[in-house]
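Supplementary Methods S3. Complex input for the zinc ion-bound model.
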Amino acid sequence: MVEELAFDNTEERRKDRQNGTGWIEVIVGSMFSGKSEELIRRLNRARIARQRVQVFKPKIDARYSIEEIASHSGRKHGSKPVTTTKEMMELIDPETQVVGIDEGQFFDSDIVAAANELAGKGKRVIIAGLDQDYTGKPFEPMPQLLSIAEFITKTHAICVKCGNTANYSQRTVESDERVEVGASDKYEARCRQCFIPHSDSPTPVE
Ligand code: ADP
Ligand code: ZN
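Predicted complex, serialized as structure tokens:
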């Protein structure tokens, strides 16, 4: 819901920041649900508030542009591609106040301890990622990140078959790989009733 997303009182908590308090925000949902858009919105607002921001994404996601995080609607924000959590941690400037991470599901499990460590050092950590894989199984390490986050936002797409609230990423190409990077060429958003936990033919566009 728009109201929920607009209600975001975490970003300008300067008083908390002066007290040295950090926290973790996690944004999860299916593909096309607006996770990247919401992450980019929060990062832009942090920059407007003149906070020092660093953004990372896993190298595995070659979607659109390697040096940027991008939403399906075309919004973009600069980001640094990294292969491991360790590499990301080595790149974080002690002065950084806000750490943004997209495609969190493609990070190794060290990301959980790293997020806690960064928040413990007073940083605001915002992580977006898929909470389920193409079979509907929880997509680690997102469940672990949800457990340790102070703030959680669940985003939803629209089912391309029936128009209901979509919570699933339906794979539309033949592949049994858990990681099959793609966008609307390989996935579409579906609701609980229309989703099937394996590949299905794409819904024709009218
Ligand atoms: P995510 O990061 O969750 O994959 P994005 O932020 O990249 O999502 O993209 C969200 C945008 O995708 C929407 O604003 C809309 O323009 C577009 N979109 C395409 N298909 C759908 C769909 N089935 N439901 C909702 N939005 C969709
Ligand atoms: Zn449906």
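The pocket of adenosine-5'-diphosphate (ligand 1) is lined by residues 29, 31-37, 71-73, 155, 157-158, 160, 189 (CB under 6 Å). The helical segments are 2-6, 14-18, 35-48, 85-91, 110-120, 142-148.
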